[in-house]
Write a structure and sequence with these properties.
Blueprint lengths: L7 H19 L13 E5 L5 E7 L2 E12 L3 H9 L12 E8 L5 E8 L7 E12 L4 E8 L12 E2 L2 E10 L6 E10 L6 H28 L1
Parallel strand pairs: 6-8
Antiparallel strand pairs: 1-2, 2-3, 3-10, 4-5, 5-6, 6-7, 7-9, 9-10
Helix pairs in contact: 2-3
Length: 223
Amino acid sequence: MPQQRDTHQNRLNRYTANGVIAFMFVTLVGAVGVAGGNWEREKISDDGIELYTRSTPGTTVREVRAKVTIAAPPEVVLDAACDPDSYKGTTKKYVKKNHFYHVKDPNVWYNYQLVDFPMVTKRDYTMRYEKKMDVEKGVYQLEWHVSDRFGPPPQDDVVRVTLVKGFIDIKPMKDGENSLMRYTLLADPGGNIPDWIINLANRKSMPNILREIRDSALKRVKK
């Protein structure tokens, strides 16, 4: 394949290939788009990360939301979130197949992935991603959900993931120097993983993901 320029689109593509896998399977958490119950505050960490969960109709997996203020402009935070080097996980060794499908709209693309983690059955899915940017206001958003438009048919030895919805949004604070980043996700990996394991994992792992993005953004500001 020809080498591509390192544009916002390419960085977002790398994000979907790596970061979302980390969010959805390493943390085993679950997105948005389905009206749920009231958000319940789970905790506020010592470094200011707020974590919330709520029940969602149609699944016993809890929707999770985390937010944090970052001392960097939104475009820098977006770059950090899209850069796989921002994450300390080992997602690359678990992604066995990774294919992108592009359409006429440059802000919309699809990504098929097959992942193989120890002690659980292989899983795969195709996701539709849409990038929304309001540069004038400094507000950025990336949304994703499962789609059947591209990718192979279901395989007998692979669990097809059917419930993934999420978004990350970043907007400037009133002081003009900080950004508010919010990440909301609902994902059920399917199979026989108990719900209590999924719900426990999201509470423990989500703050670490936001820390990685925040630390990467701060390094960019200092350069």
